[in-house]
Amino acid sequence: MARYDASTAEILVFTFKEGLLSAVAHDLKLRVSTGTVEVEGTQVRADFDAGSLRLVAPMKDGAENPTAIPRLVYGEVEKNTAKDVLDAKRYPAITFTSSQITDTEVVGQLTLHGQTREVRGRRSGRTAEFSLDQRDFGIKPFSAMLGTLKVKPVITVKVTLPA
User: Fold this and answer.
1) pLDDT digits over 105-143, tens only?
2) Which of 36, 34, 31, 33 is nearest to 47 (CA)?
3) Which of 157, 140, 142, 163 lies closest to 18 in space, CA to CA?
4) What is the pLDDT of residues 43-61, one digit of tens each?
5) Entry pTM
6) How far is CA 52 from the centre of its chain?
7) What is the rounded CA–CA span in Å between residue 99 and residue 63?
8) Residue 147 binned pLDDT confidence (cut-offs 50, 70, 90)
9) How far is CA 149 from CA 21, 83, 126, 141, in A?
10) Distance from CA of residue 54 to its chain's centroid?
């Protein structure tokens, strides 16, 4: 069995802005900093700490734009993600167990925010990419400034394992 942690596997979460003030907002690239992925044959089990998402960089047009947000604000984004979005104290664990893996797809059960749903992701080599609607897991997407600044309900999760 191969076992990877957050220092060897890359688990990224991408959020996308919307709302009246979206022109002054930023898409975000976050990294899971605590978790494990275990692979045995065609079976995968992953466990992540919901409070461990760290902001890698704001994004613009699909590219990192590290100067768009002052580094001092990164902690606030991380706190909002853990507390207000994921409620990591109440739901500390995020788990995934595969049920089917093909050359092009990964299917499995994802438990997030205390709710379990089947998810399907595209697979390319050692990378799987999932589009997840936060509302399917009882998560209210982040909103600020009376709803004029919001995160879209659908986020992207990308998991890459080393060769």
Assistant:
1) 999 999 999 999 999 999 999 999 999 999 999 999 887
2) 36
3) 142
4) 999 999 999 999 999 998 8
5) 0.93
6) 11
7) 33
8) low
9) 5, 18, 35, 11
10) 10
DSSP helix/strand/coil, 32 = strand
SS (H, E, C) 5-30: ECCCCEEEEEECEECCCHHHCCEEEE
What distance in Å separates the CA atoms of residue 21 and residue 145, rounded to the nearest whole number? 9
Task: Spell out the residues 6+ positions from residue 6 whose beta carbon is closer than 8 angstroms to its own.
Answer: 31, 32, 33, 34, 35, 52
Query: How far apart are the C-alpha atoms of 49 and 65, rounded to whole Å?
Result: 26
Residue 22: pLDDT over 70:
no
Read out DSSP for 54-89?
Answer: EEEEEEETTEE-TTSS-HHHHHHHHHHIIIIIS-TT
- How crowded is residue 36: how many other Cβ atoms within 10 Å of its Cβ? 15
Q: Residue holding tokens 């925010």?
A: 113
CA dihedral 130, 153, 13, 24 (to 10 degrees): 140
pLDDT at residue 94 tops 70 = yes
Q: Which fold has domain 2-160?
A: Lipocalin (2.40.128)
